[in-house]
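Worked example 2:
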Amino acid sequence: MDAIRRDLAALDAIERARLAEITARTEGIRGNVEFLVSMLIAGLALLLAGVAIVVGRTTRQRQEALARAEELNARQQALFDGAVDGMLLLDEAGHICKLNPSIVRMFGYDEDELLTRHNTFLMAEPSDLEVSRDWLSRVGAAGLQGAGRRHEFTGRRKDGSTFDTEVAVSRVADERERRYVAAIRDISDYKRAEAMKSEFVSTVSHELRTPLTSIGGSLGLLAGGAVGELNEKAARLIDIAHKNCERLVRLINDILDIEKISSGKMHFAQDEVALEELIRRTIAANAVFAAAQGVSLVAKGTARRVEVLGDADRLEQVLTNLVSNAIKHSRHDGTVEVVLKQSGSLAKIEVRDRGEGIPQEFRQRIFGKFAMADGSDNRTRGGTGLGLSIAREIAQHHGGTVSYDDRPGGGTVFWLELPAISELVQRSNAATDLPRILHVDDDRDCLSVMASAFEDRAAIVSLSAMEDARSVIEQEHFAGAIIDVGMRDEDGTSLLPAIRRRNPGLPVLLFSARDEKHLSAAADAVLIKSRSDLDEVVETMMGLLADRGAQA
């Protein structure tokens, strides 16, 4: 029994020890769980605090952004409402969505009378709605370059009176639809002031011309000894007065030219102008001035005739200005070269000098009105400061431009670039299955009429220069040829050897103003311009083509 008791006591001790161990382990686990739960609660609390801070900050930032947006909107509204110019907000179709008080003041309508109306309602002569919408669709966005489109129109007030306005329209971004802002300015006062200025300048200039002409003529007579020989001092004073009178006349003429160009009153003829002849006349006109300055004038042309369409007198005015400027700024014993070039469809006249060049600080305003590189120096050399401005305006009216480059080795190259009259006048766009006929004639009207006469019967390639004709004969194939005998530079029959070599059986019709017997032996047919109409030319050429087709 004692042994049993000892064993039970031992087992009890073991169980108590195991229970104590389990209890201790359980307590440890519970402590860990309590710690983890505490940490999780603390982390969640921190997270909630962070969320609260972020939400608070976001709310504050949103409120600040909303306040800024409201402030910006209020500022924009103030700018919109306070603008001196009338402001309209238009929808995509051009209807008025919003307007400022200046529109009400300018046109006399109440706001309610204009909202939802089309913007053309404010025009004295409203354009078609489709035309207006098409115009709006091409308007660009406002940016660094300013408004997208500018336009002048005559506005009509509520009382029926009209006034001149200028509108600047720009596209603005909108999430829902395209919208436009139109700024309208009353320019009637500006127009009146411009008209008054133009009238004043014109009147004063014309009124000055007559007395200055008399003064200049009288001084010229005195300088020429009309009242007897003058002593040296008097002659010098008369010469000074005469030169300054001429300078005043040039200034008045330049001012009148500028005024005419600005107002669109200057007339520009549309004639064929040969640039070689233009250069020759300009050099002849400036020869005396160049000799007085000790400067030589040299012309360099091209191997072919170069023509432009324009006003010969105005173009000579441009070239004279460039040449005289080059002479004035050239050194004594220097040379001014006038060089004619043609590159593709552009003709270019270069005026080259070996002067001191153009100062860097003067380059930005060299083509401005009354621009002079050095006022004191130009007073010695002469000039009004308007010549280059006039030259550029005249060139632009001819579809060209005037500019300059630095000349390698020193000096300046001023150049006039104009669209040349293309030597390849017309290449028919008729169907490719029609016979191709070469037509060579130096009369462009004749080329154009002939091409029309052959319409739907042949494809005409019209050329006005022998050089181009020779090149085309070597490069292209034709069914027949019509050649003018009396070309400008040489006899048109000189093309026949090249034609026969290239295509021995090619039908050739000579269309000549001269009635010469030997022509009949040189070609398949000869017609005299004064005796044959276009229908006869067409039928003769088509008959030659038919005969050749039958023989083939």
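The two ends are 149 Å apart (CA to CA). The chain has a mean pLDDT of 82.
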